[in-house]
Amino acid sequence: MTAHLIPLLMAAGLTACGVYMLLERNLTRSLLGLMMIGNAINLLIIDVSGPGGSPPIYNSTEGMETDADPLAQAMVLTAIVITMGVGAFVLALTYRSHHLTTTDDISDDTEATRVSKLSDEEIIAAAVQDPGVPVEAGELDAVTSEEPV
């Protein structure tokens, strides 16, 4: 089984462009990046599936000495369905985000930024004052001397 160089380079290029687009702060570009990565995976599956052959139908002879592998085709069809499902989900997220914020860009979460700048002592003190604040396992038990549930 030999892989051809051109389709492998195309799959690598599609994957690189898709990852670059996924790293953007725009949901539409993230969606396009997911679609590019899905297409690169499909191209890779077809490329590494082996040489072509006659259709894998019973009593089919078209001059080829071997039959084509139907597993790769079934995997690509499954990957297409999964990619379309993920694409529809991200498209729904994009629509909801645009409906709520009237923009397609993802902004920084101010609360997450504030919490990331706190020290461990400040996090534990905030957890003791407000029990609804989640902390890492074991930290709250050592501070309040309550039995774990």
UniProtKB/TrEMBL annotation:
Keywords: Cell membrane, Membrane, Transmembrane, Transmembrane helix. Pfam families: Oxidored_q2. GO terms for cellular component: plasma membrane. The keyword Zinc does not apply. It is a multi-pass membrane protein. The chain crosses the membrane at residues 6-23, 30-50, 70-93. It is found in: Cell membrane. The keyword Lipid metabolism does not apply. Belongs to the CPA3 antiporters (TC 2.A.63) subunit C family. This is Monovalent cation/H+ antiporter subunit C. It comes from Mycolicibacter kumamotonensis.
